[in-house]
Amino acid sequence: MISGAMTLDLPIVCILAGGRSDRMGADKAELLLGGVRMIDRIVERMAPQAGFLFLSGDSDRETGFDAVKDDPNGPRGPVAGVWSAHRWIRAHLPGAPGFCTVPVDGPFAPADMIARLASGNRCAIACDDSGDHPTFAYWDMEALSAGFTAMTAENSAALHRLAAHCNARRVAFAPPALFNINTPDDLSVAERLYAEAGAD
């Protein structure tokens, strides 16, 4: 059973919220930025861009959206959420051509991010001057299936390798669109960026 409204003329979006947050030392989804939980900030940004929205993680974080736990039979590491989302979509939203992923710790994702990533009808990853950021991505379902098969053969669990196997195109964004909050110092920078932007 799935919850929430569905408008599949817009892309499916999965918020990756199941990481261990070792460098942060706290659950990043529950961190406050400008007094609001990170998970609530990214949901607010993604919901208008998504035809269907769900979370990759152990719980729905009181958002009311479906939460998909990592499949214990799948890969470990950063690929796990994408693997589990792929399988869940196959089971619950058959026929969907693909889906986007965004990390829970990316609170500055712009309002056109999903449309730009999904516009080419093929796998795509976001990039900026610092390099590739494959947690911000569009994954074509068929290309992803082939990519997982190739990764199993090489015993890899890196999102960069998955993107390469999927022949993902790159979509460039200007800072701070892809800023990730991985450490307490990053959170301090994000608070400054948030204040400078005069965000709500």
Task: Please indicate the percent range of residues in DSSP E strands (runs of 2 or more).
Answer: 15-25%
Q: Judging from the principal axes of the Cα atoms, what is the shape?
A: globular
Oligomer: single chain
* Class per helix and strand makeup: alpha/beta
How would you describe the overall organization of this protein?
The chain is of the alpha/beta class. The protein has a single domain (12-195), classed as Spore Coat Polysaccharide Biosynthesis Protein SpsA, Chain A (Alpha-Beta Complex). Helix content is 32%, strand content 20%. It contains 6 helices and 9 strands; from the N terminus they run βββαββαβαββααβα. The protein has helices at residues 38-46, 80-92, 113-118, 141-154, 159-165, 184-197; strands at 12-16, 32-33, 36-37, 52-56, 67-68, 98-103, 124-128, 131-140, 169-172. The strands form 2 sheets. A 7-stranded mixed β-sheet has the order 5-4-1-6-8-7-9, with helices on both faces. The chain has a two-stranded antiparallel sheet with strand order 2-3. The longest helix has 14 residues, at 141-154. It is globular and about 45 Å long. It starts with 11 loop residues before the first strand and ends with a helix.
Give a concise summary.
With 200 residues, this protein is α/β, with parallel strands linked by helices.
Summary keywords:
200 residues, alpha/beta, Spore Coat Polysaccharide Biosynthesis Protein SpsA, Chain A, seven-stranded mixed β-sheet, two-stranded antiparallel sheet, 9 strands, globular
